Amino acid sequence: MKKYLVPAVIAVLFFALPVFAQTTDDINAFKKEIEALKESQKAIQKDIQEIKDQLRARQAPTEFKEAVIELGDNPFKGNKNAKLTLVEFSDYQ
Predict the structure, then answer these.
(1) Residue 57 near residue 41, CB atoms below 8 Å
(2) Could you state, in order of their start, the residue ranges of all structural domains in the chain?
(3) DSSP 53
(4) Which of the four, 14, 16, 26, 91, has the lowest number of CB atoms within 10 Å?
(5) Is 35 left (phi over 0), alpha (psi -120 to 50) or beta?
(6) How far apart are CA 44 and CA 26, in angstroms?
(7) Which residues of 22-50 are buried (b: 16+ CB within 10 A; e: fewer)?
(8) What is the tens place of the pLDDT at every residue in 39-51?
(9) CB neighbour list of residue 69: distance below 8 Å, 6 or more residues apart
């Protein structure tokens, strides 16, 4: 039992020394920094909630209008009478 007691005490002291080495000023500085981070987090959460509220208030368009694009004699792929036509405009240089 005694042979395990000395290493245990040494281990406790080894891991506990850094905690005791911190001064009261260091601990107060950490507390202030934590409080500042909490306030910042609250502000971010408030901003996010405001954005969510604005998005919920915005109503999605209930009426969709049909857009017709005439391709003329330009080449195309697929069914000419498809319900959806995807047109790509690009500039080849």
Answers:
(1) no
(2) 12-57
(3) H
(4) 91
(5) alpha
(6) 27
(7) eeeeeeeeeeeeeeeeeeeeeeeeeeeee
(8) 999 999 999 999 9
(9) 85, 87
Cα 71 to chain center, whole Å?
43
- For residue 86, give the nearest of 74, 72, 69, 73 by alpha carbon: 69
As given in the structure block, the two tokens for residue 8 are: 């245990």
8 Å CB contact between 36 and 54: no
pTM exceeds 0.85: no
Residues 52-91: tens digit of each pLDDT? 999 888 877 677 777 777 777 877 778 877 887 677 777 7
